[in-house]
Specification:
Elements (H helix, E strand, L loop, with lengths): L3 H20 L14 H7 L11 H14 L18 H13 L10 H18 L5 E5 L2 H16 L3 H4 L7 E6 L4 H9 L7 E4 L1 E2 L2 E2 L1 H13 L3 E8 L11 H11 L2 E5 L24 E5 L11 E5 L4 H6 L4 H4 L24 H35 L4 E3 L8 E6 L11 H21 L5 E5 L4 E8 L6 H15 L3
């Protein structure tokens, strides 16, 4: 119930969000995070719920602490993850969505939002090149990958939703050895088992087509069925793009569903300069794309797109009459919720539509192109800076991966022990920069290439050259004497 007291509380919260989270949170002189270890953070937050409720003033004080200790992902030096930055129109869409609190399953529940979702899905299909495509917003691209595998299975075995997988041969799922971990989770979750996931070797983050061809032939030779190839468009670690045209040729030859995991790399579709990286995506059967990553929509905002209209409905519809009756007084094709396995579904389309509407097509392209310009700047900066070494000569995308070499290891013999020492550097630099709070970077090893821990930054478009210079200086400062 909207009372004068509750509305005053919301106005105070609004000011907190605008001033502390968005305005101060995006200023370079302020911290990305005020880091506390878990136990200390637990002590700072008043988490206990009592029998008697807490008044709005006390809640406001708690919210101030939440804002203070949270990571400011809109900070220009927050470059550790694929989501970063702040878009006013997208944020307004998220706030309006929450204020209306709609459930986007049928037209009577969310008429405006269904019109918007249908429009956005159609426009994204045009970008991909699906002439008769369909799609739906999903709670993240991991979920979208699950749906794509589910679709591929239904496409090959139309009775599988009724009879299950009893009596079927082993169905094989192919992905690169640098594919997103959600593919590995999909195996057990969907009943295939992790043994059905076949990882294909990569070169510089890109799937090797000849290795895929051999793996599919081996699968068939064992009496198994090649079900789906998941090609990655922008790998999580190095940003590699699998060669879609060559992979599509193989899939067509073997009658295998091709799914493009463009969660990270789909943004290049907006750029005339860089969409070549994703050439051939129109030949895939399905695509997932996280619009909350490079394009900057508020989390979460992701879609699955399919080449043929009607496939999602045929695979997922349960025809629940209390939501999806066919004798309604309006066109029931607008009851889009039966296309997915969800019932309750948050409205994610408005924030992205508002963001796109605000920027226009040229603004979306500039957003992507600026990120690539930043990437080029950082690569050249690291190449010409003592103590930094790129893990590969060139990067397809915006993930820039490198080792930092402390003074004591520079010029030394690069033997096994030397590399062990190098592998210890990145975690310590990460710890020091996180506790300092002024930058956010990440690190990881790459086991399939036998690469020890290295640092990684993502060249988001809202960061400037001075931001990247500062981050490189901070890494040097914290790592030089390790």
């Amino acid at each position: 119930m909207a009372t004068a007291e509750s509305m005053k509380f919301l106005e105070d919260i609004f000011q907190l969000m605008v001033q502390e989270c968005l305005t101060k949170g995006s200023k370079q002189e302020n911290k990305v995070v005020e880091f506390l270890p878990p136990e200390k953070l637990k002590d700072e937050l008043d988490l206990i719920i009592f029998d008697k409720g807490t008044d709005y003033n006390a809640l406001l004080d708690i919210c101030k602490k939440i804002a203070h200790y949270s990571v400011k992902s809109n900070h220009p030096r927050h470059l550790s993850f694929f989501y970063s930055g702040f878009d006013a129109a997208g944020t307004a869409g998220a706030w309006l969505t929450d204020a209306l609190n709609a459930n986007i399953h049928n037209f009577e529940a969310a008429p405006v939002f269904i019109m918007i979702e249908n429009f956005v899905i159609a426009e994204l299909n045009k970008l991909v090149g699906f002439e008769n495509g369909d799609g739906v917003f999903v709670p993240g691209s991991s979920f979208g990958n699950f749906l794509a595998i589910h679709l591929a299975r239904f496409n090959l075995y139309k009775d599988v939703n009724k009879t299950g997988m009893f009596g079927l041969p082993r169905l094989c799922i192919f992905c690169s050895d640098e594919a997103h971990y959600s593919v590995m989770k999909a195996g057990p979750f969907l009943g295939f088992g992790s043994d059905s996931i076949i990882k294909i070797e990569t070169f510089n983050g890109r799937m090797v087509p000849d290795a895929l061809e051999q793996a599919i032939s081996k699968c068939k030779g064992l009496g198994q069925v090649p079900l789906i190839v998941i090609a990655t468009c922008g790998t999580t670690v190095t940003g590699g793009f699998d060669p879609l045209e060559e992979i599509a040729n193989i899939c067509e030859r073997h009658n295998v569903w091709l799914h493009a995991d463009a969660a990270w790399g789909g943004a290049v579709l907006y750029s005339q300069h860089h969409r070549r990286l994703i050439k051939g995506i129109e030949r895939s059967n399905s695509v997932v794309w996280s619009l909350h990553k490079l394009m900057g929509a508020p989390i979460q905002c992701a879609v699955i797109l399919v080449k043929q209209k009607g496939q999602l409905q045929a695979c997922n519809s349960s025809k629940a009459s209390y939501l999806f009756a066919t004798d309604k007084f309006y066109d029931v094709s607008y009851d889009i919720g039966d296309k997915t396995v969800q019932c309750g579904r948050k409205v994610d389309c408005l924030k992205f539509w508002m963001l796109w509407k605000s920027r226009g097509h040229s603004g979306m392209a500039n957003h992507v192109d600026t990120a690539f310009q930043n990437s080029k700047y950082v690569v050249e900066k690291l190449r010409n800076n003592d103590g930094f070494r790129l893990i590969q000569d060139e990067f397809d995308y915006l993930n820039i991966c490198f080792w930092y070499i402390p003074l004591r290891l520079q010029g030394k013999v690069e033997n096994e022990q030397w590399w062990k020492e190098i592998g210890k550097v990145a975690p310590v630099v990460k710890e020091k920069t996180t506790k300092d709070g002024m930058v956010a970077i990440s690190y990881q090893p790459l086991e399939n290439r036998k690469l020890v821990n290295f640092l990684r930054i993502v060249t988001h478009p809202h960061a400037t050259q001075s931001d990247f210079d500062y981050i490189i200086e901070q890494i040097d400062k914290h790592g030089k004497h390790l």
